[in-house]
Every structure is written in structure tokens, then in C-alpha cells.
Design a protein that fits this description.
This protein is mainly alpha-helical and about 70 residues long. The protein is about 45% helix and about 0% strand.
Length: about 70
């Protein structure tokens, strides 16, 4: 029987730009910084999308009667 050596596998962040080593037992694929950055981007997309939808709804309800002053 061969002597099995423990393979100490170092997990790293899956983000190609980051590649930070992750702590042992860490359950996510990305580091905390990359996860926070991703969440921030998603929140920004939701805000822009929501404001666009609200603007279109207002335009439909008012039938375009509201005109900004120049």
C-alpha cells in the first residue's frame, strides 16, 4: 500500500483579476471583496432598471402630456 500524502490544496478566488487565496473551509468560490463588488453592480443595475420602468409607466399614464420646460 502506498503512503498517501495529504494534498494541501489552496483554494483561490475564481475572479481572474483577483486570485486571492481563500481560507480553509471557505464555502464560496469568490473572495468577500469580489462578492461585494458583484452585489454592488447588481444593485446598480436594479436601480437603473427600476427608474426606467417608473419613467415609462409615468409616460404611458400621462400619455406624454408632461413636457419639461426648456
Amino acid at each position: 500500500m502506498k503512503n498517501k500524502k495529504e494534498v494541501t490544496e489552496v483554494k483561490v478566488c475564481k475572479n481572474k483579476k483577483c486570485q486571492k487565496p481563500l481560507p480553509k473551509g471557505y464555502k464560496h468560490k469568490y473572495c468577500e471583496s469580489c462578492r461585494n463588488e458583484w452585489a454592488y453592480r447588481i444593485k446598480q443595475v436594479i436601480k437603473v432598471g427600476a427608474s426606467t420602468v417608473v419613467g415609462v409607466i409615468i409616460l404611458i399614464i400621462t400619455c406624454g402630456k408632461i413636457k419639461p420646460k426648456k
